[in-house]
Amino acid sequence: MPMKLAVCVSGRGSNLVALLEALAGSSQADVVLVLSNRADAPALELARGRGIAAESLDDHRDATEWLRRLRTHGVELIVLAGYLKLVPPGVIAAYRDRILNVHPALLPDFGGPGMYGHHVHEAVIRSGATVSGATVHLVDEAYDRGQILAQARVPVLPDDTPATLAARVLRAEHRLLPAVVLRAAEAGRPVVLPEPLELSP
Ligand code: GRF
Question: What pTM, to 2 d.p., does this model score?
Answer without folding.
Answer: 0.96
